[in-house]
Amino acid sequence: MLTPADASLAARLPQGVLRDPGPAYTEEPRGRLKGQAGLVAAPRDVQECAAIIRACATARVAVVPRGGGTGLVGGQIMSDGPAPLILSLERMTAIRDIFPDEGVMIAESGVTLQAARMAAAGVDRQFPLSLASQGSAQIGGVMSTNAGGVNVLRFGNARALCLGIEAVLPSGEVMHDLKRLRKDNTGYDLRDLLIGAEGTLGIITAASLVLAPVPAEQGVALLVVDSPAAALRLLSLAQARLSGGVTAFELISGVSLRFLDAAFPEMRQPFAARPEWLVLVEVGLPAGLPADAALEGLFTQGLEAGLVHDGVIAQSGQQAADLWALREHIPLANRHVGAIASHDISLPLSQVAGFIDDAGAMLAGLGDMRVNCFGHLGDGNLHYNLFPAPGRVREDYDDIRRDLSQRIHEMVVARGGSFSAEHGVGRLKVADLARWGDPARLTAMRAIKGALDPLGIMNPGAVLA
Amino acid sequence: MLTPADASLAARLPQGVLRDPGPAYTEEPRGRLKGQAGLVAAPRDVQECAAIIRACATARVAVVPRGGGTGLVGGQIMSDGPAPLILSLERMTAIRDIFPDEGVMIAESGVTLQAARMAAAGVDRQFPLSLASQGSAQIGGVMSTNAGGVNVLRFGNARALCLGIEAVLPSGEVMHDLKRLRKDNTGYDLRDLLIGAEGTLGIITAASLVLAPVPAEQGVALLVVDSPAAALRLLSLAQARLSGGVTAFELISGVSLRFLDAAFPEMRQPFAARPEWLVLVEVGLPAGLPADAALEGLFTQGLEAGLVHDGVIAQSGQQAADLWALREHIPLANRHVGAIASHDISLPLSQVAGFIDDAGAMLAGLGDMRVNCFGHLGDGNLHYNLFPAPGRVREDYDDIRRDLSQRIHEMVVARGGSFSAEHGVGRLKVADLARWGDPARLTAMRAIKGALDPLGIMNPGAVLA
User: Fold this and answer.
1) Is the Cβ of B429 closer than 8 Å to some Cβ of chain A?
2) Which Pfam family, any one, appears in the UniProt record (chains A, B) (predicted)?
3) Of A29, A246, B119, B284, whose Cβ has the fewest other Cβ atoms within 10 Å?
4) What is the rounded distance in angstroms from the CA atom of residue B260 to the CA atom of residue A326?
């Protein structure tokens, strides 16, 4: 049985780690969940972090790790049970080392993703993980949730961008594994086990991150396509032409554009009529192959193949940033409108178009609503979000919301897809995992959780019930 | 306590799975280890595989999984203890499905790597995992050992090329997780845990493999460099110019060339004088950037920077194959000469040159021998192999062999490197792992092993003692 984080635990913690448990530690971005914080502790180094975990283990107190707090599935929010200790990585903000010629940076978990990206840029490299919340999201959270974002198509998710970790295990032991090696086959892959475990198997305190060369040529285009199916054929064409040079391939819908109009009327859009489907294509290419020429070649081939109808190719860094801004403001526009329900799904690429058709038809039969379907098409990862019809409000859909999500997830799973592509399980999707997870896999996950965290103190209630 | 695989177990196995336990099931490539086989069973499908595991669990019989048998660290060889059941995947050879536009292939574990690569080529894609033993090595073994090879620099190791697995867990349960998704954050990463576990946590029976587009432009060059340090500066230069277009960057030594002369005198070499250091550079580039022009640009820049002194750029597919043949025949040439000791090490890139210098000096102080240092320089992965001085034989070094390897591994570990970059731990490196592995990581590994395989039947003695 767990006990609350209280004064007697506080007395056993290392000097000076406690923070005021203000509301910033118990909130999440959408404001739908509210957590508790018996204590908030922010270690300055891994040894203090380990001492906190040992104290919590001794006292049987739940530990909820917290990075930037930007998670969307409640992994950082414990609402029930004895009040936990919130373990914030906010003071572990060192970039311990950077090796430009190796393409490696060692960053502590409290470093924001933005700061990590800037540190890489400072040595003429890139840390190719980019997502909307990067100004707040921290490396520890990014790793613990195996974050994705817009460049997974070329560089993989967080797991693929990490060579090693330092972590405090639930026992309070420190695992020192900050390797800078591209190959190291010496035993079980605990790094990838802790990455994506959402703090339920230990606390990642630092990571050895992969830096990539900045492409010699970079470019962005926004292309109007007939349909998601046409977009995917265009992707196939682009991959064949550019041999790994496509670094992002993002779907934008007409609904996205109209929501941007509503939320950001001052934002200029390149197409006067709002097309129903567009893709934002980003390329990173070798020296000797100018990006605008490569994108024009793709555009022309797409036109000839009947896949593309219109498009703009950025002629400057500013224009490229403006096109990206359209894509990046969609989540904010969504919040402005107010979603009924959001879904972070992925599908095998050949199932994407069929899913969009079938889900649209299914929803049309259930009620009057708007669908904003957008996101990382190149990864088969869609943000499939439902909004009230004009003139109606979120609450009008309260009685069907759960059913809507259930049905969408059912359709996704039936097509071999995932009900959580990049956001994780957290606490909001625990029931989904229990329902759709492979039984043998779930049994093995529970066995691992029991073996590494026998007291059940690490982020209880997240991932596994 | 385990019991031997005997007639009473045989009677409980599914009909028709038993094979004659010939010597092919108890040998390994270097002929140094000899295993035992109480029984050999070859299931035709995952259900038969699961039934075999359940029977072994009931009878407390050790299971040693076997793919192509090409492993170099004895993971497939159990010499001690009650005779095991050898579980051969040789009859699970279906390519179940192939999705060219998704870049995915579902292959059973008994498919050879060569067959998988040919199946990909048949739909105009590549399975970018390539290694010397690919004609025999099977997908199951490749995955279970997280195999590497020559294209890791661009495409990652086996782990990075697998989207999902089907596996039989030690309990006999089947984990169905053959996803075709690029993003799927729904719980612990059991896929990557089983990959690289060398059969100690379960049997991988099929894998969902990543296929990549065939590059629009491909080319190969063999460049003469001053030193490994110069080679690494050239790599840095190539990465900056070619933005991910370098698909292989292999080091070849003068010793390699002279061994090739001895073993394959008919093989033509491009440089009459045998240079001391060379790199084989392979590129895969977008349409519009001819590979020979890109390689010439790199060659010229390397010359100007004083890094490259001579070189050849393949002018045809045949010439490219001939240059690759030099690299690929080095292991055979090594066997012809007969190594005293071999080391599959990796180092942080900035530590490679210093290691080569220091290790050479250390060895010079210990005795008269030849070093063939070659391999996957772009990954920091060297095959650092020691050979008798001319006129002497392997046995002359019997009394110092263990000490030599120990000292080399010590130097590697002191520089943040790995004593097993791509071959794995198997049984030959169990003591190395116990000595150099992080203690907290080892404790966690043992806890996981105990949780998933409480009877200890899965490949006992491999990875963990």
Assistant:
1) yes
2) FAD-oxidase_C
3) A29
4) 58
